[in-house]
Design brief:
single chain, alpha/beta, Rossmann fold, 2 domains, six-stranded mixed sheet, 10 helices, 43% helix, 19% strand, DUF4276 family protein
């Protein structure tokens, strides 16, 4: 069984990555291990186990964007000893600016653990919500009022521009868009479940990734890890 560990910064990313893994894995079964960090200690929330599945994926919620690489470094040797073949890390750029991205990525690379198990780090530009925005078809599934024209009036951003990576604070843009239909985006559990369940992951894999370098990079690393 191939084992892959994915460290993310928060609940939104954890919920999204779980659904994404299912779609990328396709017909291959996946056993999930879900962990959440509390006070520097990871607590296991659940562990799916079906003997016939081909993949095991650990999703570790670090509850802090700056802590993703720190916890990868802390746990790297144990993950390698436990038979993990790949480690991925995902964090947002925000609240840093686009101009600070090169320095952030360069600094992260100097701290990547050196060993036989590859570690791939991806910074979602500027937040993973930009990836949700690039899945332009999900808006009207949430509510028919959320068409391109209404969203543009509310946010100043046109969904058809396909430039969500240029947004300085995508989560706020998503909130402003949802407000058209009297909804909100404040990353509550129910809001995360609503949005993630509305995403068309096939569309993300085939179309949306073409308009987001950071999304495409993460998907490429995930696809490679599952080979």
């Amino acid at each position: 069984m191939k084992k892959v560990a994915i460290f993310v910064e928060g609940h939104t990313e954890a919920a999204f990555v779980r659904k994404l893994v299912i779609h990328v894995a396709g017909a291959r079964g996946v056993n999930f291990i879900s962990e959440v960090q509390h006070g520097g200690v990871f607590v296991q929330h659940y562990h799916d186990h079906s003997p016939g599945n081909d993949l095991e994926v650990l999703i570790a919620n670090c509850c802090n964007d700056a802590a993703v690489l720190t916890f990868i470094r802390e746990r790297y040797e144990k993950l390698a000893a436990a038979g993990y073949s790949s480690v991925l890390g995902l964090r947002d750029l925000y609240p840093l600016t686009h101009q600070e991205l090169p320095a952030l990525e360069a600094g992260m690379q100097t701290r990547v653990p050196d060993g036989d198990v590859p570690v791939q780090l991806v910074v979602a530009v500027a937040e993973v919500e930009a990836w949700f925005i690039e899945e332009v078809t999900h808006f009207t599934r949430i509510d028919p009022l959320l068409d391109d024209e209404s969203v543009q009036v509310a946010t100043g951003y046109s969904l058809s521009s396909r430039l969500a990576e240029s947004l300085p604070h995508p989560a706020e843009t998503l909130h402003q868009a949802y407000q058209v239909a009297g909804m909100a985006w404040r990353k509550t559990s129910s809001q995360v479940a609503r949005t993630v369940s509305s995403l068309d992951f096939g569309f993300m894999l085939q179309d949306a990734r073409k308009h987001s370098q950071s999304m495409d990079l993460f998907l490429c690393h995930l696809e490679e890890a599952f080979q």
